[in-house]
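Work Package 3 (structural annotation) set out to generate three-dimensional models for the target panel prioritized at the project kickoff. During this period the team completed the workflow that converts sequence records into discrete structure tokens, so that structures can be stored uniformly alongside our sequence database. As a representative example, we reproduce one entry of 141 residues exactly as it appears in the project archive.
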Amino acid sequence: MRATMESVLENLVASNVSINKTSRDPAGQLRATIDRSIPDEIDGRLRILFEQLSHIRRSPEAVREHQAAVDWQVDLYEEIILTGVNAGLWQPSVPPRQLGETLVALASVANLYMLVGFAGDAASHRSRMADLASALLGTSI
């Protein structure tokens, strides 16, 4: 479980480092981060991670590791949102951290829905996330 979580997180980190190197546009970074948070297909690593989540509460260390992974994702969204706010691009109707937490939660639920086989495909989930982010930021991303 730990190795799987580390592998999934390493992939997310690498993907988002790539995003930030190729785009200085906060809207582009936010769209790309949303896109990468919901893959077209749920791979074996992500499947294992979701299937084992109910067991992590038995291990305080596993809970801390999972929370750290979630916090890293929230931090990433918050950083991108704050960059857009500081550039005068966005006026969020909720605090940036809260929006980041919401986007991470929505991506997790979308991935879980895809894992169990209902509620749309990845593209529709990504589109809904972008629409929500746009509404809460006060502009289209």
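The radius of gyration is 15 Å.
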